[in-house]
Amino acid sequence: MFRAHAARSFHDATSSIPSVPNPYVRNEAFVDSRRRQTIISLLDVLSELSHDSSSDNDANLPSTSEDERDVPTVDEKLQVAGSESFNKFERRMENLDKELRNFANAARQLGSSVGILSSAFKLRERLTKLLFLFRENAATLFPRKISRQPRETLVNPNLMDRRRTWRGHQPSLKSMVNDGDLDPESFPGQFAGFALDVVTFLNCLNEFPEFTDEAVNTSMHAFEVDLQYWASCLDEYKGQFRYPAVQRYIHDLTSEIGEHVDNITVNLSMFTEIGVPTIRFAQQHAAANLLNLSTVATFFSAVTATTLQFSYALTDGPLEKSVNAFWFSSLVFSIAAAVNSLLGLTWKQAMYRSPGHRVPWWVLIWIKRSPLVFLVMSVACFSAGLMLFTYATDQGFVTSTITTVFTAVTSFGLAAVSAWFASERWIFVQRRGHVWLEDVINEATLNLIRLPMMLEMRKIIRYCNRLILAFGGLLGRVSFKKVSGVVTRIRRKTHPTLPTTQEGPAMINLSPQFSMSVCSEFTERPNSMEGRASDENESSRRAIARQRFKGAVRSVIMMQQAQSGMQVQSFLRPMMPPRTPSFDRNSTNGMSPIRFSSIGLGAIRGPRPPNLIPKLRTLEPMQDLMVHTALVRHLQFSPNGKYLATSSWDRSSVVFRVGETLTTQAILVHVRGFIGQVAWSASGHLLLTRLTRGMKIWTAEDGICKKTIERPHSVSSVAWLPGSETQFFSVEGSDVFKLVLDSYHFGRIQLHNVAVTPDGQRLLGVGPLLAAPNGLHPSRSARVEKRIIVFNIETRIFENHTPVVNDVRDITISKRGGNVLISFEHKTPAQLWKMELVRDTKDREHPFAQIARLTLRHTYLPKAQIDFAGPSYFGGKDDQFVLCAGKAGDIHIWERDTATLLHYVKPQPFNGDLTCVAWNHSTDDPFMLATGSHDGTVRIWTTQPDCTSDDGSYIERSISTPALSPGFCG
C-alpha cells in the first residue's frame, strides 16, 4: 500500500511540473513501467534496512525476515534430520549385509555349513526387502531428501535360489523379488519373517558345538524379541500404513533397529575372526585323527596280509586253524577300520552333511567310534594269532614263552588303556565335565576304605603285627629298635626344643625411646599443619559467608518454615490440566489427511497481528508469591481468569484472586497425600485437587471442601466434563472412570493423561502399551510403544490409534477442539496434531458415520536443545500460542499455526528450577502467565496493557483485598 501510494505521488509530481516534458506523450507505457519498477525496488531496499535496524534493538528475537523464514527452516531441519536418520540406518543395514557376506564366504570351509549358508542368504534377502520398504517410507515422509529406488534395480542376494536356474533359463526379476512383499502393508509380516530368519540363523550358528559365542546369542535373542513385539503391535494398524502418523512411527523405529543391527554386526565380525578359525581347527583336528587311524589301519592290514602268507597253507591241526582264523579276522577288522576312517573323514568335511543332533545315534556311533574299535580288535586278533602261531610251528620253549608273556602284557595294557578311555567318556557324560576320572577313583577308594568290613580287616592286620613283634625273637627285637629310633627322630622333629634365653635380648633391643620419637615426629607435624589449614579454611569460610549472606536469607527463612521431614529428592513433571474447548469443524486451518506433502507448505494461515511481537517483548515478571515451602507441582488459571490455583508437595493448595496484584483467597490444607494436579470446572466456581488415591472438590470463594472421593487404585489424572459441574474423568491405570456414573476400559494402554473434546463426545488419552497383542514385551534395550488414543464415548469404539516412540506424558485440546497438543518427557519437543472427522469406510450400515483421525502438523523446535519442565500449553485467548518452559527457567512462546518462535525469555536469576507453567486464557490484554519453581515460589508474568484496545479484560484492576479464607479437609 505504501509502495503504491509513493508511485502515485511520484507520477502526480512529474505530471504537474510544466518545465518537465511529459514522458507519457512519447512512450507512456514503457517509461511508466520502468519508473515504477525502480521505485518499488528502492522501497524494498528501504524496507529491508528498516527491518534490520529494528531487529538490532531486540536481543531475544531474530529479525522479521527470519520469522517469515522460520517455518521453512523448521521444516528443512525436520527433513534433514529425517534423511540423516535414514542414511545412518541404511549404512547400518549395509554393514550387516557385508558382514553376512564375509561370514558366508568364511563358513564355506567348514563342514556342515550348508545350513548356516542358507540362513545367511535368507537373512540377506530379508534385509534387502526391509531396506527397500524403509526407503519407500522415508521417501514419502522426506521427499526432498530421500529418493525412491526402482524395483527393477533390486537384486536377490540369495544364491541358493539362483543356483536352481543354472540348469534352465535365467529367471526374471519378478521371480527373484516378490512384489507382494514390497507393499507397505507387509511391514508386520516382514518384521515377523525377520525375527524368524534371525532365530534360524542363530540356531544354525549354535549347531557348531566346537565354539559358542554368548554375545551373539544375547544380541540376537534380544533382537528377535523386539521384532516379534513390533510385528504384533504393527499388526493392529492394518490399512493405515500409508497414513503419515504410522509412517513416522515406522521411521522412528529405525534408530532402535539400527542399534540391534550394530550389535549383531560387531558380534558377528568377532565370530568370523575368532569363531570360524576355532571351528575349522577343531574339525581339522577330528579329521586328522581319522586320517591317522586310516593310515595305521592300512599299514596294519598290509602287515596282516603279509603274515598270512606263512600260515594260510597250515590247515592240519586245531592250532593251525585257530591261527588262520585270528589272522583272517585281524585282516577284516583292519580293512574295516581303514575304510570307515576314510568314510568318516569324507563325511566330516562335507559342507552339506547334517548336524550331529539331526543324525541317528547309530550312524554317529558307527562313523565316530567304529574305526578305533575295529583297529583295536584287529590288533587283538593279530596278537592272539601270533602267539598261537609260535606253538603251531613248534618253536622253541623260550620263544613261545617270551611271545606269550609279551602278548599278555601288551594285551593287558591295551585293555587297560581302552577301559580308561571308555571310563573317561562315561564320567564326562555322567558328570558334565565337572570332575576328572582320577577324582572319581580317589573318591571311590576313600569310600571303600571307610566300609565296616575294611575297618575290621585293618584291626586284624594291626593285631597280627603286634604278635609278630612280641614273638619274633632277635629279628623282631632288631626291628623294634629300628622302629624306636625312627619314632624318636620323628618326635624330635615334631617337638623341637624351646629357644634359649640368649635369643631374648635380641628381641628387646628395640628402644622404646626411638619408637616414641618416631611416633612423635609423625604425629606432631600433622597437628601443626592442621592448625594452619584450619585457620585458612576458617577465614575463607567467613569471607564466603559474608558474600553470600544476603542471598542466603531467603533460603534460611524457607527452611525454617518447612515442615520437618519433608525433603524434595526427585523432580516429577506436573500433570496436564484439562481443557474445555469446542470442536471446530469449519476451521480454515484444517487440511486433508490425504495431502500429507502439503503440511509443511501450508503452514502460514493468515496475517499475524502487527503488535503481537512488540507486546510479547514487554513480558516481564510482575510478582513473586512465596506461599509454598516445597516444590510447586501444578498450577492453573480458572476459565474466567479470576483465580489462580496452585498445588505443592507441602500438602497444600493455594487459591489466588487475580487483580493488579495477586492476593491469597484461600489455602486448602490436605492432611495426607501429595497434591498432583488442580483442575477448574467450566464455571470456575469449583476446584478439583487430585491426590494419590483420590480427589477433593473445593469451592473457590471460601475454600470449603464439599466432597472427598477415595479410589481403590492410583489416580494419574483428572479432567472435568465440558460444561459440567458434577461429572469428571478419573484416569486409573488402563481404565477411565466417569465419576460417578460410568467407566471405560482402554485395554493394554496405561494412560498418563486424558482430554475431552468440547462437545463431550470423544476422549483422548496418551500412555505406553503394557504388552503387545500376543503378550510379548520388548527387551531391556528397546522402548515400549506409546499411543495416542481417540475413544468415542457414545459408541464406545476406539476410533484411532496413533503410535509414537518417545515418552509421551500429556495431552491438551484447544478450545475449538481441532488442535491437539502432545507433550513429551525430557528433551523431546512438543507436537501439534490436527484432529479431523473423516468418513468411516468400515461402517457399511451407516454411510454417513464419521470417525476422528490425527495428523501431525508441527513440531515446536527450540533454538537450542533444552530439558523441558512439565507439559506444554496453549496460550492466548484463542489458543493462538504454544507455551513451553525449560527447567533452567527459560520460556519459549511459539505461534500455534506457523510454529514460529515469537518470544524467548532467558533464564532468570532466581533460585529453583522451573517445574510448571500456566497461561491465563481469559484475556489477551495484558498477557499473563504463571510459573512454579522447585523452591516453592510462584512467579507472575504480564505484559504492558494496551490502552487503545477495545477488548474487555477479566482482570480486576481495582479490587479490595479479601479476607484470607483457609480451607481444611481431613
In short:
The chain crosses the membrane at residues 290-314, 326-347, 372-391, 397-422, 463-480. With 970 residues, the protein is α+β, with helices and mostly antiparallel strands. The chain folds into four domains: 2-57, no CATH class; 71-162 and 174-278, no CATH class; 285-434, no CATH class; 596-969, YVTN repeat-like/Quinoprotein amine dehydrogenase (Methylamine Dehydrogenase, Chain H), CATH 2.130.10.
Topology (SSEs and partners):
Blueprint: H1 2-16, H2 24-55, H3 64-107, H4 114-141, H5 159-162, H6 173-176, H7 187-206, H8 214-234, H9 244-308, H10 318-349, H11 361-392, H12 397-431, H13 437-449, H14 452-470, H15 473-494, H16 503-508, H17 512-561, H18 612-617, E1 620-626, E2 632-637, E3 643-648, E4 652-657, E5 663-670, E6 677-680, E7 686-691, E8 694-699, E9 705-710, E10 717-720, E11 728-732, E12 735-739, E13 742-745, E14 753-756, E15 762-768, E16 786-792, E17 797-804, E18 808-813, E19 819-824, E20 831-839, E21 850-859, E22 873-875, E23 881-885, E24 891-895, E25 901-905, E26 914-919, E27 928-933, E28 937-942, E29 965-969
Parallel strand pairs: 5-29
Antiparallel strand pairs: 1-28, 2-3, 3-4, 4-5, 6-7, 7-8, 8-9, 10-11, 11-12, 12-13, 14-15, 15-16, 16-17, 18-19, 19-20, 20-21, 22-23, 23-24, 24-25, 26-27, 27-28
Transmembrane segments: 290-314, 326-347, 372-391, 397-422, 463-480
WD repeats: 625-658, 928-941
Region (Disordered): 1-24, 50-72
